[in-house]
């Protein structure tokens, strides 16, 4: 099977879209996969001589930048079809010493900002393609956004989801009328399958972060932010494939050039950071992460060239900070967000953005689609990171009442016991018993009081926790 595309011109048609090519050529072009393109195998470099079908909109050899005009066109077209989400001042502002505003994109109908780009990409399809339909590979938010707006606009949508996709996500897309194909051991394979199907069935492949119309659609968030918060000092944007960053940065830097653009990645999926080190997108293995929306192994080619010149700082955050941010957003803002949506706050809480103390900062709460069990675990991890959920082992007397005394002490302190067990077989002293406790305190001061009291009362106490959100705390002090 020959590749369906390459090359600078053979699959390129000029449309009304104004998407400029990067490499010094200022001709305004858009690339169109199906329809008018012609195949010319002579022009296909050797590296493309494989079974693989390439995405004509995302070509590593000639990446495309989007312009401010693309974003404003998107804003005009999608207006009325998506939610203009609020951007209130956060209750966390005083605690962190910043004027923090939270852009609540999780309030979109399908729970994430992905609807913006999806709707715009669908509206920009040539009429013939609207009838044939689109296809994409996605594990989550993009699939839902595309399926929902396909349904609203009466455009057939196929999504290929890898076998690991949760039943809930598959079901959601089906409920929006999409054809869902569950195939492929991972996202890379699902994408290969989707691209092959796009060619065989004449469907337009819509990459969820790198398609120029997707980026332009996401950029409309930037326009809204500037209407809601005047002249912010910084806007913090979680980064997966980089489309969200590219779109918003394009909008913000055009209208408010002094505003700093901050990207955030999880330590477990640093594809944009690695691309910056490498001088271009490069495959970066990802580990399982709370921020599954950011788990993209190679950031987008178009997204990279668009975002890089506009980016002021890239931050990589630890997973525990993401968990803690999810907890804080529930407790203080009454917002349920997924890991990717909490990454911006994680960058602040972890101290990576202290230069913005006293300044006006907008952070994007970009999605709220979090699995209920994952959500529960995040809250527990968050409590542990703040030192409010503690584990300790304490050796007490084996005489009757030894464990009761410990429980009484905990009750007097107002500490809530979550789990307790005791062990005797492995202790040197046969008149002692080791008690393992998991407990919850009100706050870190309360935890400090517990530690102090236990150490005064018992000779052998060992804390096994690591409350990383507590400055200066040494593990197993
Ligand atoms: C909730 C959420 N936040 C952020 C992102 C990152 O967006 P992008 O891949 O455009 O960088 C995604 C991507 O799926 C997402 O679902």
TrEMBL record:
Give the signal sequence positions.
none
Q: Which cofactor does it need?
A: pyridoxal 5'-phosphate
Per its UniProt entry, which superkingdom is the organism in? Eukaryota
Q: Which Gene3D superfamilies match?
A: 3.40.50.1100
Q: Name one GO biological process term.
A: L-serine catabolic process
For this protein, the record's InterPro entries field holds: ACT_dom, ACT_ThrD-II-like, Ser/Thr_Dehydratase, TrpB-like_PALP, TrpB-like_PALP_sf
Which UniProt keyword terms apply here?
A: Lyase, Pyridoxal phosphate
One GO molecular function term of this record is: threonine deaminase activity
Q: Does the keyword Glycoprotein apply?
A: no
- What parts of the sequence cross the membrane? none
* Residues in ACT domain copies: 391-466
Q: Which family does it belong to?
A: Belongs to the serine/threonine dehydratase family.
In Swiss-Prot or TrEMBL terms, this protein is called L-serine deaminase
Organism listed in the record: Hermetia illucens (Black soldier fly)
């Amino acid at each position: 099977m020959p590749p369906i595309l390459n090359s600078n011109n053979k699959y390129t048609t000029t449309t009304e879209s104004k998407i400029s090519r990067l490499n010094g050529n200022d001709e305004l072009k858009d690339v169109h996969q199906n329809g008018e393109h012609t195949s010319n195998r002579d022009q296909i470099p050797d590296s493309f001589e494989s079974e693989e079908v390439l995405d004509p909109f995302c070509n590593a050899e000639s990446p495309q930048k989007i312009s401010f005009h693309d974003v404003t066109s998107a804003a005009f077209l999608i207006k009325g079809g998506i939610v203009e989400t609020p951007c209130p001042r956060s209750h966390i502002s005083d605690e962190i010493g910043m004027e923090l505003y939270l852009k609540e994109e999780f309030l979109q109908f399908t729970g994430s900002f992905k609807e913006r780009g999806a709707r715009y990409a669908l509206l920009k399809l040539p009429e013939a393609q609207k009838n044939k339909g689109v296809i994409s590979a996605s594990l989550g938010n993009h699939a839902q956004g595309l399926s929902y707006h396909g349904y609203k606009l009466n455009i057939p949508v196929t999504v290929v989801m890898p076998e690991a996709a949760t039943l809930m996500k598959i079901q959601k897309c089906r409920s929006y009328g999409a054809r869902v194909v569950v195939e492929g051991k991972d996202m890379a394979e699902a994408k290969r399958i989707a691209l092959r199907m796009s060619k065989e069935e004449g469907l337009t492949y819509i990459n969820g972060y790198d398609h120029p119309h997707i980026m332009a659609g996401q950029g409309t968030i930037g326009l809204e932010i500037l209407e809601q918060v005047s002249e912010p000092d910084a806007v913090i944007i979680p980064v997966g494939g980089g489309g969200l960053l590219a779109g918003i940065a394009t909008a913000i830097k055009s209208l408010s050039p002094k505003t700093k653009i901050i990207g955030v990645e999880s330590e477990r999926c640093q594809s944009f950071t690695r691309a910056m080190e490498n001088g271009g997108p490069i495959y970066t293995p990802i580990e399982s992460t709370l921020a599954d929306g950011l788990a993209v192994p190679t950031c987008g080619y178009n997204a990279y060239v668009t975002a890089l010149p506009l980016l002021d700082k890239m931050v990589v955050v630890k997973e525990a900070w993401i968990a803690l941010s999810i907890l804080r957003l529930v407790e203080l803002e009454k917002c349920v967000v997924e890991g990717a949506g909490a990454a911006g706050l994680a960058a602040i809480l972890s101290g990576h953005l202290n230069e913005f103390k006293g300044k006006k900062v907008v952070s994007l709460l970009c999605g709220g689609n979090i699995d209920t069990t994952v959500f529960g675990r995040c809250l527990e991890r968050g409590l542990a990171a703040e030192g409010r959920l503690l584990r300790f082992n304490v050796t007490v007397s084996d005489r009757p009442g030894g464990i009761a005394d410990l429980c009484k002490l905990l009750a007097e302190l107002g500490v809530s016991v979550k789990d307790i067990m005791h062990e005797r077989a492995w202790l040197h002293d046969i008149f002692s018993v080791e008690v393992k406790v998991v407990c919850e305190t009100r706050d870190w001061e309360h935890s400090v009081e517990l530690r102090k009291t236990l150490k005064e009362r018992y000779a052998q106490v060992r804390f096994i926790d690591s409350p990383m959100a507590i400055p200066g705390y040494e593990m197993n002090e």
